[in-house]
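FW: tagging you since you asked about this chain on Friday. Here's the raw sequence from the shared folder, copied in full. Didn't touch anything.
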Amino acid sequence: MDSASVSVSSNAKTDKPLHVVMLPWLAMGHVYPCLELSKILAQKGHYVTLLSTPTILDRLPKLPQSLLPFVKLTKLPLSPHIDKNHLPQDADSTMDIPSNKLYYLKLAFDGLQDSVSEVLKISNPDWVFFDFGASWLPQLASTLHIRCAYFSPCPAWSICFFDTPKQQLGDVAAATRTNPEDYYGPPKWVSFPTKIGLRPHEVKKLFEDVKLNETGASPVFDLNRANSGCDMFVIRSSRDLEPEWLDYLAEFYHKPVIPVGLLPPSMQVSDSDDEKNSPDWLQIKVWLDTQQGSSVVYIAFGSEVKLSQENLNELALGIELSGLPFFWVLRSLHKGLVQLPNGFEDRTKERGVVWTTWAPQPRILAHASVGGCLTHCGSGSMIENLYFGHVLVMLPFLLDQALYSRVMEEKKVGIEIPRNEQDGSFTRSSVAKALRLAMVDEEGSALRKNAKEMGKKFSNREVHNQYIENFIASLHNH
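HL: got it, structure written out here
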């Protein structure tokens, strides 16, 4: 990373404590980065109010005692006017609902406007952070004379790819993107070379979301309104990851774009004795200690991906076929949502672990026996994988995950498991082949080397701290 590119202005007045209110979309992948950034701001003596629903906030890990005076978790119950037949009680995050209920979750989220307004009026913060789910917030913040920042847990390329530039290119140009083929390759308005784009089966899912909703109506996520309305973009990213996309985003919207760094796990992982001596971690560590260095594949698909039984079967049998040692976090198995193929655990017990409860992912990834990751390419997981320099085997299921996978293939630090272009299916043999290529085959040695080199760059703590200082200075100076 080029530390000069993130230097702090010498005129920055960073002595005054700030107060930031954060309102993320109702998905854990959006809430966790807000919590991580809240903790970092609190460590610097600034105050944060994190707004979300009761169930989501109850799921978050406890804050260190020293940060409690600085971080306030404020519960906002969803609007009661949503029919509970459509949105069951306590179903107040994306992980709690099937995709055809998303319309109602967005409707309930929009119903929080009055509650959010009251919080802002009472607390009068210096800044309010939001993301794509709250396109109505910039107008509310403007009315109350509060500055607002779009905080994206995903890289800038995701914003640039999915938001058609209506204002910049005109309605005619925007209308040309109503065809599925327009999403197959890079956006036509991006001038620099990139292979970023979606596969036919991914675009099909994008266009079928309306049909999947039982109302026949699509949830209205007005990306252009959300992006155009902010005073500043704050991106969980770095110039080493995507310099051209960050520059393009600033040019695209004519607004400051502040990369906050990757918020790597070392900045949030507690070194308390309680965590290091937890029974779960000690049990996991005992098994990891018996494995050879860089030999284990860590497998996890996050909280948002819901694997079908067919996909789980092919994935499990591919992992078995690879012959590699593995540690697989599969919490959906504990919930009884899916089942492993008959005899899988017995056949692989000598070289693998299936873990069905919460797992301390950063600690596992930091262990010397882990050498690669089979991942869904969720933004948080990708950052942790890259931080530790592990080679990637990628199997994305959501659209932003697909873009992350394409960029990592461009950077030659991993391989995406091949799928049928039309229906997205994959086979056990393709899973096994990709795993072996990434982890042990000579053909994949360059991928492993590149991943380690990227890990060295992304684990530079001094540069990450510089990003944070620049971010805080930007909040003061804007």
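FW: DSSP finds 21 helices and 13 strands in the chain.
HL: agreed, and The two ends are 25 Å apart (CA to CA).
FW: great, closing this out.
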